[in-house]
Design brief:
The structure is a single chain. The protein is about 80% helix and about 0% strand. It contains 15 helices and no strands. It is globular, with a radius of gyration of 20 Å.
Amino acid sequence: MKKKLSVGAALCALFVLITASQQAVLCCKSSLKLCIGLIIPSLFPFFVLSGLLNNLGFPEILGRLAGKGAEKIFHVSGTGFSAFFIGICGGYPLGAAYIASMEEQGKISTEEAEKLLGFCNNTGPAFIMGAIGSGVFHSVKAGLLLYIIHILSALLCGLILSGREDFVSAPLSPAPAMGFSSALSHAVRSAVLNMLNVCGFVICFGVFTGLLEAGGFLPALCNFLSLHSGLDYQYIRAFILGLFELGGGVGAMAGFELNAQNLALAAFMLGFGSISVHFQTLSLIADREIKSARHFTGRLLSASLAAVFAYIAGTYL
């Protein structure tokens, strides 16, 4: 049954693509521009750096420094907790890529990787303060506030999802640290492949939302929800676009004034990451035995917490 529904949905998408081919081309160009102008410049250097740090043995170094605290508070190893710093500095889906890399090299167990995915795959400062703070609200202060809320929500999410069980280190056989030249070469190759993967999903979902717009489905849904919720049409549109692809949702917020309601919307989208980010994460762990259920739960919980905190903070702006 599921296969038939999937095939039916794909055929419907093909029909819309054929009938709105010009719109699809324009959406594809727009998504490519987004990748070239924002996604690649903001993510690629961090992909290389995170891969380099991992290959040089940074997780083990941080593990020795943060081991006891990470085990007691979040019930993960200090080695695994290094993914939080990578994710919060680099942005989606860098945290997931780093976790998958550590699990593949035997530095963390599969169970720990799943737990880390719940709170270590986050939006980076470049996107939050650049695209949201300066780009949408024209306020560095708002961007910094959203970044702080994003970090606190992720940490609180980690606490909630950690459970009460004590951390027990699994018997692992981690790969030895590489020399610098080998580590850099490997990091660059991995970064290129991961970057292509990310941009592919950004373009795919950019075209998908564009076809929904061209087919009249998105305007009809926005009108219906706006009519029955009392919320502004553009607010609903930004929210729906943000659910599918974070960049599209942020772009739809252009011109929004800085207030508690709009700040909460931005915080929720940043925390959730979008369905596109979830598919990017799935593709990064596809060859591993890591399950993604905790990642989706963590993103939804973190987004909800961030929206509440941002709304409260926004009332004092």
